[in-house]
Structure to design on (668 residues):
């Protein structure tokens, strides 16, 4: 079975089906899904506020490309770094050595890619499976306490490039590790990162993911982290979206074991016509777990932000504490935000709270600061820093924070003051 | 220092200042008293540059500059300071961080080098001691969770840090306990030189026992209607404002 290109022209009509060792089933199902379905529209609840029409009009290509260096993308120089350009692995730019307690492999080198938790009824998941370029699997040994992070740098280079890319992380029992993912793009318009990450956090493991997004304003980025947590594990994902044209982040966490902690933090700072959509879902499937979620954004110009955070406490999942908060500041009259925190609770002994705020910077506070000699710009910057700082502080890795400061400086010409 | 001439201002359709004139020279302390709603805070806000008010007539000369033409921040950089009647809370913005930015922007405006971290911290220690402001408060978020009195002390701490030419203290005494009143007044007195000047807006004579004014003005219905020496404050304390209203009616 192959993609039927005879009907309407499709944004992926130039792409070749994946040659990676996915199961025949996964390939077949995803291709038939793409043949039978169109891009989701705003009539689809999950895409209500995010229009994909522009993406659908592009014609993407997949091709390998070389980069001179990744110095400017080296978020944490102490990390073990794996570099992918347009989805393809770049051996020259990646670290030569690898810590003992980590083994990693390219998905293209595997005999078989496990059919894991992919979602066969989700459009971009199917797109990813059908045209998967490459991927990486990280296996963190049981009991490994990794001193330095593992860093995956994904760069798009060239016009109309699409990268269907996948990350698999298996954090072994009682391991402690942190992973940085950095998404960048250069040298071209209308690029597209379509990324799926599958993350398994074993018993007693502690895993942190710091995700930095700094693609260009013409880039499409759709990524999904699917996380499964076994008992006594701690999982944290911190996302900073500082550039990108149309960005959609899905984080789906299945808390399958008791006594887990889940932390999800996100900061987004938008300007011009950027559109950033964060969708999160936490499934509390078992009792005695805590989840904490804090997403904050600042929107300037004609940018739009979407936040949809859902927590489901399933039947019999008692003694759950779930906290969720989303805060937005609009600094232009033309900026918009759609925020929808959702709680679905089917157990009775739970403590959950959620809240969403949208406002402007406090004029009184700005006047006060100006009265002390600060320019309006500095006053804005201090207020924005204070607002977003609450999320940026969640990035515990100092190198990551420093790197974020650098990005803020180059994009907004201001320093984040901690 | 500052010369306000026939200032008229309104907000929306409401006229608040109705021809106010006042001159303050270097080295002087002026007190402005007057009933609630007379326009005292409005005057302070307009001088500081709040944009909600529309100045319909009059001029303000500040050290040879047309004050009303300057932006709020440039007024501060030229040496104008307003201690707010109701200081705002700014969660997440650290007091000393913003002061450091303020001082450096003021220095840049005056073509001076930025203050070093070391000198700045020394200044913070010295000035917070001056107003007996707990150094922990100095480094917390601006006014967040401060008691009423702490907020007022923080205003004077900031004034000490910025060393303005002209300070306008809008009811800095309200909400202060007796000891704090003395401390704040001492702070103001210690910062006094022959080069700077202070306008204190107050309802109570007791502040003026500590900060002794050269002139006392009565602001009523948008104008300065009476000016006298420090004894005028005592008289007002005793008799209230009715006799002035009566005088005006005649
Ligand atoms: N933003 C505003 N909108 C409408 N009216 C205002 C506004 N600000 C001030 N006023 C009015 O202007 C008048 C003067 O107010 P102002 O605050 O200057 O008085 P004040 O002399 O400082 O009084 P107080 O002693 O109570 O502090 C009042 O009648 C007040 O209601
Ligand atoms: Mg007042």
């Amino acid at each position: 079975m192959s993609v039927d290109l005879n009907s309407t022209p499709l944004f992926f009509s130039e792409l070749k089906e994946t040659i990676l060792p996915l199961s025949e089933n996964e390939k077949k199902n995803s291709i038939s899904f793409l043949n039978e379905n169109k891009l989701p529209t705003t009539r689809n609840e999950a895409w209500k506020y995010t229009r994909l029409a522009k993406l659908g009009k592009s014609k993407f290509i997949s091709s390998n490309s070389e980069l001179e260096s990744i110095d400017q993308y080296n978020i944490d120089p102490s990390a073990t770094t794996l570099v992918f350009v347009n989805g393809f692995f770049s051996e020259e730019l990646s670290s030569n050595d690898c810590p003992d307690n980590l083994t990693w492999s390219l998905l293209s080198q595997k005999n078989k890619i496990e059919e894991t938790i992919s979602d066969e009824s989700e459009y971009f998941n199917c797109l990813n499976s059908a045209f998967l370029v490459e991927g990486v699997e990280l296996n963190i040994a049981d009991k490994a306490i990794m001193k330095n992070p593992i860093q995956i740098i994904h760069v798009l280079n060239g016009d109309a490039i699409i990268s269907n890319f996948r990350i698999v992380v298996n954090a072994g029992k009682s391991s402690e590790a942190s992973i940085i993912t950095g998404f960048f793009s250069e040298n071209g318009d209308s690029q597209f990162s379509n990324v799926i990450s599958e993350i398994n956090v074993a018993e007693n493991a502690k895993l942190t993911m710091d995700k930095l997004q700094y693609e260009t304003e013409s880039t499409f980025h759709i990524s999904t982290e699917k996380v499964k947590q076994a008992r006594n594990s701690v999982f944290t994902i911190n996302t900073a979206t500082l550039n990108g044209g149309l960005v959609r982040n899905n984080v789906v966490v299945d808390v399958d074991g008791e006594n887990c902690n889940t932390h999800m933090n996100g900061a987004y700072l938008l300007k011009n016509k950027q559109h950033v959509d964060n969708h999160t879902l936490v499934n509390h499937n078992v009792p005695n777990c805590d989840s904490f979620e804090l997403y904050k954004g600042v929107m300037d110009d004609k940018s739009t932000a979407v936040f949809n955070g859902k927590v489901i406490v399933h039947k019999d999942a008692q003694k759950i504490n779930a906290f969720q908060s989303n805060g937005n500041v609009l600094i232009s009259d033309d900026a918009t935000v759609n925020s929808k925190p959702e709680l679905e609770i089917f157990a009775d002994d739970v403590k959950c709270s959620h809240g969403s705020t949208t406002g402007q910077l406090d004029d009184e506070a700005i006047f006060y600061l100006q009265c002390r000699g600060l320019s309006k710009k500095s006053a804005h910057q201090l207020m924005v820093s204070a607002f977003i700082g609450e999320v940026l502080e969640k990035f515990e890795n100092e190198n990551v924070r420093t790197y974020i400061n650098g990005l803020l400086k180059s994009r907004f010409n201001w320093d984040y003051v901690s | 220092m500052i010369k306000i001439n026939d200032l008229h201002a309104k907000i929306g359709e409401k006229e608040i200042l109705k021809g106010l004139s006042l001159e303050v020279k270097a080295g002087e302390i002026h007190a402005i008293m007057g009933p609630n709603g007379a326009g005292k805070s409005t005057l302070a806000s307009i001088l500081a540059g709040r944009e909600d008010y529309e100045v319909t007539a009059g001029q303000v000369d500040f050290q040879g500059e047309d004050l009303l033409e300057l932006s709020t921040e440039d007024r501060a950089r030229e040496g104008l300071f307003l201690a707010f009647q109701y200081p705002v809370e700014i969660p997440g913005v650290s007091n000393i961080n913003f002061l450091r930015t303020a001082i450096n922007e003021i220095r840049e405006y005056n073509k001076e080098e930025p203050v070093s971290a070391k000198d700045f911290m020394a200044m913070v220690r010295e000035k917070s001691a001056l107003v007996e402001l707990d150094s922990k408060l100095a480094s917390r978020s601006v006014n967040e969770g401060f008691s009423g009195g702490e907020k007022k002390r923080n205003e004077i701490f900031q004034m000490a840090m910025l060393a303005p030419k002209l300070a306008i203290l809008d009811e800095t005494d309200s909400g202060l306990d007796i000891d704090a009143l003395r401390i704040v007044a001492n702070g103001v007195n210690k910062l006094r030189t022959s080069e700077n000047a202070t306008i204190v807006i107050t309802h109570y004579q007791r502040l003026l026992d500590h900060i002794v004014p050269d002139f006392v003005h009565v602001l009523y219905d948008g104008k300065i209607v009476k000016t006298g020496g420090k004894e005028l404050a005592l008289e007002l304390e005793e008799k209230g404002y009715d006799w002035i209203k009566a005088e005006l009616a005649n």
In short: The domain at 2-249 of chain B is CATH 3.40.50.300 (Rossmann fold). Chain B has a mean pLDDT of 94.
